[in-house]
Design brief:
This protein is an all-alpha fold and about 120 residues long. The protein contains seven helices and no strands.
């Protein structure tokens, strides 16, 4: 009986591993859109929250000063997708109440200290 040589055995193993690699299935994952994640109730709640914010008297006054009518704002909000409304609602919820971030506050303090040092 003839024994296979190392060369032919390694060739056979190499071809086998290559064929297994080519024949195996790869996993595929698709991105999930925001519309699929948000429930319709949550999307409507966010849309109503943004509408309520734009309907406030001070916001409406500022928008009119920029030349944007309240009717146009409401029409554009109605035309937005749920993902766009979700992005705006997320930004509105993350804004600081005073209109200034911590970084801006630190910069103002540092500039004030520098001015005081320069004056003295």
């Amino acid at each position: 009986m003839r024994q296979p040589s190392r060369r032919s055995l390694s060739f056979f193993l190499g071809v086998s591993l290559l064929s297994l690699g080519l024949l195996s299935q790869s996993a595929k994952a698709d991105l999930i859109g925001t519309e699929q994640i948000l429930s319709p109730a949550q999307a409507n709640q966010e849309r109503e929250g943004v509408k309520a914010l734009t309907a406030r008297q001070d916001v409406a006054k500022e928008l009119q000063a920029m030349g944007i009518s309240p009717e146009l704002v409401q029409a554009r909000l109605d035309a937005m997708t749920d993902a766009e409304v979700h992005a705006i609602a997320g930004k509105l919820n993350s804004l600081p109440a005073g209109g200034m971030t911590d970084f801006q506050f630190i910069i103002i303090i540092l500039l004030t200290v520098i001015v005081v040092i320069l004056i003295l």
